[in-house]
TrEMBL record:
Lineage, top ranks: Bacteria, Pseudomonadati, Bacteroidota, Flavobacteriia, Flavobacteriales
Stated name of the protein: Acyl-CoA reductase
Keywords associated with the record: NADP
Organism: Winogradskyella litorisediminis
The keyword NADP belongs to this UniProt entry's keyword annotation: yes
InterPro entries xref list: Ald_DH/histidinol_DH (IPR016161), CoA_reduct_LuxC (IPR008670)
SUPFAM superfamilies on file: ALDH-like
Pfam families the UniProt entry points to: LuxC (PF05893)
Length: 348
């Protein structure tokens, strides 16, 4: 199967996904196919309370934008695709946000390999339908995509995403196979106190999008010692209605009760709690913070902790920083854990 065939198919998939966004691209897609995916979206919402309509809409728009002809060509032009013998690549997917494993799925097929997918039970409705759509627009994908709920067998390499605990199991179980094993990571923001209202408002998107469940969500902020939180709380107020969503509200109430009973110091505004804590991974409805005196010492500290950090949001901190509000808008060439998935797949 030629690379261009795969690219064309994923461009068509992007056009299909656009039918479920606010600005659908012009197409002659069969209405029955659209109705079918609408049904899968309905099932996804019913099955997983974290998959709200807003979160599904954002994920679909993000992948619609990513799967443009220009983006796909820019991404793939950086590599030499010359797979002589396709391998079978197993993917163990997380289920924290909608379609979180799609980039691995895309990468395997673009490289010309076969894919064996083991989905999370939290996100099992969307990708199988999209795989069928790919086979519909490009029949040569038939036989290259398989889903399983059983023990993984008959694969040559694996990409697995999970918690730190499951990662230890993955590393042992797949020790004899080429692998990418992803553990827990979180994202942080570095504030100076000079941020504009627009930047802080954008930061609130990095915090609250997907309820903060993604590894690219900001769960911790670093602040100067004399930082005043007033501007921060004013900027995040646009997300106030999130407390009306039951799963989020339940977590807010529970974590607030734990903090109060434990006599922890915290700040809160009715839908978000701010707590000083050295950890990176904060509970839902909570953002941790830590104070710093010297940026260079902070830089040294974060370098020693880089295996725990997915993104650093800042303005003028480093060449690799992410702009405020952009953590959940990665490009195709922005790889999880900074590990080049395509390079890995091309060298197997």
């Amino acid at each position: 199967m030629e690379l261009q065939q795969s690219l064309n198919a994923f461009v068509k998939l992007g056009e299909f996904l656009s039918q479920f966004t606010a600005s659908p691209k012009s197409s002659d897609i069969d209405s029955a196919l659209i109705d079918g995916f609408n049904h899968q979206l309905k099932l996804a919402k019913e099955h997983n309370g974290w998959f709200s309509q807003n979160n599904l809409d954002f994920a679909l728009q993000s992948w619609t934008d990513a799967l443009s002809k220009d983006n796909l060509e820019t991404w793939t032009n950086a590599y030499d695709f010359n797979i002589k013998e396709p391998k079978t690549i197993a993917i163990i997917m997380a289920g924290n946000i909608p379609m979180v494993g799609f980039h691995d799925f895309l990468s395997v097929l673009i490289c010309g390999h076969n894919v064996l997918v083991k989905q999370s039970s939290n996100d099992k409705h969307l990708l199988p339908y999209l795989a069928k759509y790919l086979e519909y627009v490009e029949p040569e994908f038939k036989g290259k995509i398989k889903f399983t709920e059983e023990k993984l067998e008959g694969f040559d390499a694996v990409i697995a995403t999970g918690s730190n605990n499951t990662a230890r199991y993955f590393e042992y179980y797949f020790k004899d196979k080429p692998s990418i094993i992803r553990k827990n990571r979180n994202s942080v923001a570095i504030l100076t106190g000079e941020e504009t209202d627009a930047q802080l408002s954008a930061l609130s998107d990095d915090i609250f999008r997907y309820y903060g469940l993604g590894c690219r969500n900001v769960s911790k902020i670093y602040i100067p010692e004399d930082y005043n939180f007033d501007a921060f709380f004013n900027a995040v107020f646009k997300w106030k209605d999130i407390i009306n969503e039951s799963k989020y509200a339940n977590n807010y109430d529970y974590n607030k009760a734990v903090y109060i009973m434990s006599e922890f110091d915290m700040l809160e505004n009715g839908f978000l709690m701010i707590k000083e804590d050295p950890s990176f991974g904060s509970p839902i409805a909570t953002v941790f913070y830590e104070k710093y005196k010297d940026v260079e010492k902070l830089r040294t500290h974060l370098e020693t902790q880089k295996e725990h950090i997915q993104c650093i949001v800042a303005d003028g901190y480093s060449d690799n920083e992410i702009a405020f509000g952009k953590t959940q808008e990665p490009q195709l060439w922005d790889y999880a854990d900074n590990v080049d998935t395509v390079d890995f797949l091309l060298k197997i």
